[in-house]
Structures are given as C-alpha cells and as structure tokens.
C-alpha cells in the first residue's frame, strides 16, 4: 500500500512534470523540452527534474547586421551563420541567421560593435570606462561604475583589436585620429561624432567642440553610452546640425 502511494505521488513529479513546464533562468524564459527538439538554446538547472536530456528551451529572436535570426547554442547546427553579440549569455549563445554568409574575416567593425554590445545595460558614468572595461567615473559619475560615451568607444576598439589600437580617452581627442570616412559611407563599427554647432575642427590633436560619440550599428541604429541616468544600449541614429561630416574608422 505504501509502495503504491509512493509511485503515484512521486513518479509524475519526478519524471513527467518537467516536460512542457514554463521555466525561467538568467538568460530568459522558456519551456522544458527534450534538448533534441529545441529550436532555440537550452539552459541547465531550470527545469523541475532536469534530467540530462530535458532542459529549459528558450526561443529568442535576435538582430544582426546580416538580418534577424534565432539565438542558439553554437554547439548545435545553424543552417546559416552564427553572429556574436546579439544574444544573452556567454559566447556559446549566438545569433543564427539563416542563409547568410559570414562577414569577411578580419571584420574589425563588427567586432567593435560586438564588444560594445557585451556592455548592454551597464550604467552611464561620466568619466567612466577604459580599454579594460567599466570603471568608476568622476563628478556626476563619481558613485557609478560604468562608461561614458568615449570610455565605451575606447573599450570597444581596444577589445576588438586585441588592445593593439588604444584610441584617446575623450571625444575631443578621438576625432583627431584614425581614418576619416564620409558619413554616408559608414560601416558597422565606425564611430560617429557630434560637436556643438557642427564645429568638428581639430587643432594639435584636440577638437574643442566635440561632445559625443556613438558606434554605428546598421539598420538606422547606433550603440552608445548616452547620458547620466541611462544605461548602455542601441538607440535610433541621430542626425542634425551637430553631427560631424566624417565617421572615424580607428583601425
Ligand atoms: C552550450 O553548449 C555547450 C555544449 O553542450 C555547453 O557546455 C554550454 O554550457 C552551453 N551554453 C549555455 C549558455 O548553456
């Protein structure tokens, strides 16, 4: 009698309840599924019984310069190309874009954008950020670990080039170096600059009226550390009289 009670009470909980249940984890929400039938990515430890073949399957769409796709674990097949920087979690979860061709090897621009995107959600901090990552700022950023606009761009270029290119720390210094590309010919990863009144002139490596920089992300978007009180992320591309006539390709 006791054995029957045990089987009826415990068997469904331990073996059957897992499949089909909603599950949540740090990288999203999903449904507990057999790993072999998951069209997205699976995460361990989020399903009630979590046997090795049943995991939390999360379907999340992602957007890249090559188009939209689905976040998947790169250890599974993608009938297209994997792109980094567009999905949550570590680098094993990437955006599978069907039918696309990979970016040319040595695509530093894509790497600049991808490096910046790893900092999505980090707070803006005036004076914060450097080649190695976020840091405590100064003045209004004195209590915040994060990045300001040029701290972020210095970080992204550093990381994308294996620290072989370390650009000046401020927008006023950054616009004076690197390759100048007409704004209309910008490519992913090129840095956009803004100056008061559109005065983008420089003298002795110093461009006095420059005040902001952002990373061109394609699709009418740019990735930036915008201002105190915001977090880093993708925003609609802003034009206007302050935008400088060139983007800078810093590699
Ligand atoms: C992706 O798959 C590999 C191999 O199965 C695994 O080690 C890794 O943890 C997975 N990534 C995530 C974020 O679950």
From TrEMBL:
Signal peptide: 1-17
Residues in NlpC/P60 domain copies: 106-251
Biological processes, Gene Ontology terms: proteolysis
GO molecular function: cysteine-type peptidase activity
Keywords, sorted A to Z: Hydrolase, Protease, Signal, Thiol protease
PROSITE patterns for the chain: NLPC_P60
Pfam families cross-referenced by the UniProt entry: NLPC_P60
Similarity comment text for this entry: Belongs to the peptidase C40 family.
Name by which UniProt lists this protein: Similar to Peptidoglycan endopeptidase RipB acc. no. O53169
Organism: Pyronema omphalodes (strain CBS 100304) (Pyronema confluens)
